[in-house]
Every structure is written in C-alpha cells, then in structure tokens.
Amino acid sequence: MKVIAIDFETANHSRSSACALGIAEKTDNDFCSEQYLIRPVPCEFDSKNINIHGITSDDVSDAPTFAELLPQLVPKLNNSLVLVHNANFDVDVFCCSLGQQSLPCFQFYYYCTYSLLKNILPNLQDKNGKQCYRLNFLAKVFDIELEHHNAASDALATLKIFYKILDLFNIPTAEQFFQTFDLRTGIVKCNNQQCYNVTGDDYDINDSLVDDASRTRLYKKAKKISIQDKTQHYHLDWDKIRKTPAAYPLPNFENKRFVLSGDFNSTTRQDILEKIKLFGGIPLANVSGKTDYLIIGSINSCKPQSKKSNKILKAEALQSAGGNIKIISEYDFWVLIHDNHTELQEAIQKSWIGRASI
After folding, report:
1. What whole-number distance in Å separates Cα of residue 35 and Cα of residue 39?
2. Statement: residue 200 has pLDDT above 50
3. Given 2.30.130.10, 3.40.50.2300, 3.40.30.10, 3.30.420.10, which CATH number is that of 3-231?
4. Which residue has the higher pLDDT, 200 or 313?
5. Listed range (110-114, 129-133, 138-142) with the worst mean pLDDT
C-alpha cells in the first residue's frame, strides 16, 4: 500500500477555506513533497491565518479551487494510507472543502500521527516540562528540518516522523507496523455527491468500506487507541536508539570524573569511556572522594552485598559519609546522556526491558 502524508492550511476559521495542501511521499531512495495553492470559495483571508502561513488572497488568485484540483489529487490518494498530524483538523478540512459538487469515486485510509506519538511516548515533554506533540517540537526531537506551516514541509515532516518510528521499532513497512500493534485507521470514501468519513477504531485497513446505503456524512466517535502496553516489551533496536540525533544541546560532562565497575550489557566498556570523553568527562580507574559518578554494569548491579566490588563498597561508604558521588547503572548513564530527550528515555527503557527478557 502506498503511504503518503498531507497537510492543509486554511484562509480563515472555516474548515472549508483550504488555501494550501502539502503532499509528501517516500520514493525508493528518498522523500519528496509538493505544495498546491488553492483558491477558497469565497476567497476571504483572515489576518490571523495570514500571520501563521503567509499566504494571501493575491497568492491564490490564479490557483484552482479544491474542486478543480481534486482530479489531480485522486491518483495520489486513492487506496493510499494517508498520514495526518491532527486528523480532526486535516481530514475535516478535506471533507468540508469538497462542497456539494459531483465527486469522483475514490477512497483512502488515514491515521493520525499525533495520536500515534502520544500513545507511544506518553511522557514526551518540552523543555518547560509540559506534555508536547506539536509538529515543530517533534521535528526537533527527531532532527527533521521543518519550515512550519508551509504545507509541503509539514507533510514531509509528518511522513519522516512516521518512518523514524518504524525505524526505531525495526519494522520495515507500514502494513507490518499496523498489524504488529493491531492499529485501526479511519477511512474517507467519496462517491458522487457523498463523502463518508469513519474515524478511529471503526474500520481497519482490511475491513469492508462504509455502507453505500448511508445518505449523510458519518462521524463516529473514535475509540482511544492505546498501544503503550503492546510496545512495552517490544525489542527495539538499541543501536538505532543510541544513534538517534539529539534535538537539544549535547550533555556537558566537563570536569566530571567517572569510574566504571563490572561488565556491561548494553555495550562495551570502551564505548562508554569514549562517550564520557566525548562530552568532556574524565574517566578514572579508581573511586575517590573526587569521583562524581560510579557507573555499574548491569551484570553486577544485582549482586548481594558480600559480592559487591571494592569500587561499589567504597562509593557507598563515601555516600554514607556525605560525599556527592552518584552510583548509577548503565541504563541510567544512557538516560543521563539524553537528559533532555524524554522520548529517547522512553525508548531506552522499553529496549532495556526487551533486552532483559532475552
């Protein structure tokens, strides 16, 4: 099944005032996107909307209406999986912009990446500690270039974010992803002068389509899709997670002293030592009163008191005496590196659970 992403901009508060449509798709070797300007009917622009996207009535004076553009869009949309970041807005704009004219017969499935990210990464927060799934924030998180409120750029970012998620879960295709987590899509079906929109869990990709006997646009309340439990024990690709580009400045370990103890499950000791030096830290061989962090390999972290290494025992003694040394696991070390990246912390945690069950 072809996978594309779309994004609308509107001229005013009305959902039937589409003035730009962005469509993005993935080719064999790369991603591509294009923007279509649309002349809304009536062609009335609010200053608030112009300030958001920069499109004016002059820009669309020679553009087609949505009805005139639709035949050009149908080959891209028909039977495709369409990704949208906030389906409540973009799918509704699509349906409302169709008007009452005679429509070609076509259908497409859609899925909301906003809902997807909210369920996969329930604790994703911005630097102010607020839960955030805005597209411009997600673009920073996943290191994706974005010209926000340019319809083509927004659609492209939406598509790239979806494929980043597939990559993190090491799942090659959208079909396999939806099957793995039993996700349901919405569906839009157009036939003559009727447009049917069924949302959420009412239909999946393999279900029969909307009943042709219906005479009004259907809006069924979407059931909340929660895949958090299903992803909790899924084996993520550890290396891909650790190599995901950072959205915020790298950690600063300048003049912080680190000591390692034991054997490590996630990577080699050398890899951790290189990370410490890369971020300005100082690796040391032995624990002292000047040590800031003792990193304990997971293979040693569950040992009873009598079998703890001398480094661990000395660090615990320093802590009891009021020292500032921190004793952390190798998992805590990766979280420390990604201290500002809550989404990576979530992914690391899930990957850790998966590795522990091997």
Report:
1. 13
2. no
3. 3.30.420.10
4. 313
5. 129-133
